[in-house]
Design a protein that fits this description.
- By secondary structure, the chain is mainly α.
- The chain has one domain (24-95): lambda repressor-like DNA-binding domains (434 Repressor (Amino-terminal Domain), Orthogonal Bundle), CATH 1.10.260.40.
- Helix content is 69%, strand content 0%.
- The chain is built from six helices and no strands.
- It has helices at 3-11, 14-22, 24-40, 44-51, 55-67, 74-83.
- Helix 4 packs across helix 5 (55-67) and helix 4 (44-51) crosses helix 6.
- The radius of gyration is 15 Å and the shape is globular.
- The N and C termini lie far apart (37 Å).
Length: 95
């Protein structure tokens, strides 16, 4: 079974779909972080060095966003962005 097929089956269940949809902001942020790191051509170890931390911390940061188990602080995400020579923008958007 492919990932896409499994995902389609799982998302057909209302409770699973609701949980998945609730994680959308984290998935968007993670995707943007990974794209920025790739564009910069930097490894997690290089980002960690620029942030003044260890590589496992960056691994935890990136994986925490995909798992939804932990929300990193804005300050941590800001440091990550700065390590990529980026800045963090946060907006509230009316529904």
């Amino acid at each position: 079974m492919t990932h896409e097929k499994l995902k389609k089956i799982a998302l057909s269940k209302p409770k699973v779909k609701a949980e998945y949809d609730a994680l959308e902001p984290e998935f968007i942020l993670l995707r943007e972080m990974l794209i920025a790191r790739k564009k910069a051509g930097l490894s997690q170890a290089e980002i960690a060095e620029r942030m003044g931390t260890k590589s496992p911390s960056v691994t935890r940061l990136e994986s925490s966003l995909s798992s939804g188990k932990h929300s990193p602080s804005i300050n941590t995400i800001k440091k990550y962005a700065e390590a990529l020579d980026c800045h963090l923008e946060i907006r509230l958007v009316q529904n």
